[in-house]
């Protein structure tokens, strides 16, 4: 169920690029600020009861909360600016495609977590598929528009790396809070709510085009409510059951969904290499989500734990048994 929640979140995130095409006058900073800013504040408002119950534990982990919140604030600005400068294909593949590597490095250095052969195989398939998808879309974009300057592209790639690192950081921070016996909704509400507050000045400075037309306002509302609010609620539930490195690897579904929607909705064409890349991403997801005998045993032993209202609260029983 944790993997399915992350996959569902990735599908919602994959719709953001297509949604943004309906508001071409809105800049990348405004799109990022309204999506993560308002979406984060909505998460905090929805999680007020849970945050109140876990206030003491959140205060004990204030450093992790602050690190996660700062990463939430930086990520959308870097991500959407990367796509704006280097192109959607390059910006997406750098930001999302390298996040699993950054996440694995963080878990290895900070938590001492070893990487399994299964994760390595899945990550290799996913990265190869995402690179093929990037090459296919970049080739199509180069035939349609003039090429950007080298300096602009390099800046976009650099911002994509910043987005990857911050995505990995806030995923790790949320997972760490959950493994400290904090409910998933409380952890995500605290991290994303504070991150949303940090994004409000950016939204006030750049968000005027969002209210210049009904279509722009509708795009902003959709970005905040569906991919960011609903998507990150699902992501938080997923983090209660899978490591951050696995979650970021599963999110490689996002660029594949974005490419398919670009073909079906926007009317773009995807070369054979792009479809091959999507197939490899699907293979990556199959490797990560296929059950193992040990995994089936763990689910049977913890079946009673996940019957509560909050998945994060269910983690408390699992943590008490010494398995996290």
Q: What does this protein structure show overall?
A:
- This protein has 324 residues and is an all-alpha fold.
- It contains 17 helices and no strands.
- Helix 1 packs parallel to helix 14 (253-266) and helix 10 (150-178) runs antiparallel to helix 11 (184-206).
- The protein is globular, with a radius of gyration of 19 Å.
Separation, N- and C-terminal Cα atoms: 17 Å
- Total number of strands: 0
What is the helical fraction, as a range of percent? over 70%
Biggest sheet overview: none
Secondary-structure content class: mainly alpha
Give the overall shape, derived from the CA principal axes.
globular
- Averaged pLDDT: 79
Low-confidence runs (pLDDT<50, min 5 residues)?
Answer: 297-324
Element pattern in H and E: HHHHHHHHHHHHHHHHH
Radius of gyration: 19 Å
Note the beta-strand portion: under 5%
Number of helices: 17
Architecture blueprint of SSEs:
Blueprint (H helix, E strand, L loop, with lengths): L1 H12 L2 H5 L7 H19 L1 H6 L1 H6 L1 H25 L1 H10 L1 H13 L5 H28 L5 H29 L5 H23 L7 H26 L4 H7 L2 H14 L5 H18 L3 H9 L9 H10 L4
Which descriptors apply to this entry?
single chain, 324 residues, mainly alpha
Describe the structure concisely.
By secondary structure, the chain is mostly helical. It is 80% helix and 0% strand.
């Amino acid at each position: 169920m944790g993997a399915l929640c992350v996959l569902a979140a990735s599908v919602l995130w994959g719709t953001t690029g297509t949604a943004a095409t309906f508001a071409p006058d809105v800049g990348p900073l405004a799109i990022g600020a309204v999506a993560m800013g308002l979406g984060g504040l909505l998460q905090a408002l929805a999680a007020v009861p849970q945050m109140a119950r876990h206030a003491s534990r959140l205060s004990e982990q204030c450093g992790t909360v602050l690190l996660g919140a700062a990463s939430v604030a930086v990520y959308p600005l870097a991500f959407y600016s990367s796509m704006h400068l280097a192109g959607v294909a390059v910006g997406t593949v750098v930001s999302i495609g390298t996040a699993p590597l950054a996440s694995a490095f963080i878990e290895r250095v900070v938590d001492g977590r070893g990487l399994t052969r299964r994760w390595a195989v899945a990550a290799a398939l996913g990265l190869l598929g995402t690179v093929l998808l990037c090459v296919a879309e970049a080739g199509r974009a180069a035939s349609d528009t003039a090429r950007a300057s080298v300096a602009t592209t390099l800046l976009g790639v650099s911002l994509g790396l910043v987005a990857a690192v911050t995505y990995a950081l806030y995923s790790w921070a949320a997972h760490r809070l959950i493994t400290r016996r904090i409910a998933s909704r409380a952890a995500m509400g605290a991290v994303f709510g504070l991150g949303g507050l940090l994004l409000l000045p950016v939204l006030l400075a750049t968000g005027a085009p969002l209210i210049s037309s009904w279509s722009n306002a509708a795009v902003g509302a959709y970005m905040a409510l569906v991919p960011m609010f609903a998507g990150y609620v699902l992501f938080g539930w997923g983090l209660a059951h899978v490591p951050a490195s696995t979650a970021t690897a599963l999110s490689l579904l996002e660029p594949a969904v974005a490419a398919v929607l670009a073909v079906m909705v926007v009317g773009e064409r995807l070369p054979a290499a792009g479809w091959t890349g999507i197939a490899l991403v699907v293979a990556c997801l199959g490797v990560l989500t296929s059950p193992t005998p040990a995994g089936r045993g763990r689910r049977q032993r913890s079946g009673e734990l996940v019957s509560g209202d909050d998945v994060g609260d269910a983690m408390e029983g699992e943590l008490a048994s010494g398995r996290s």
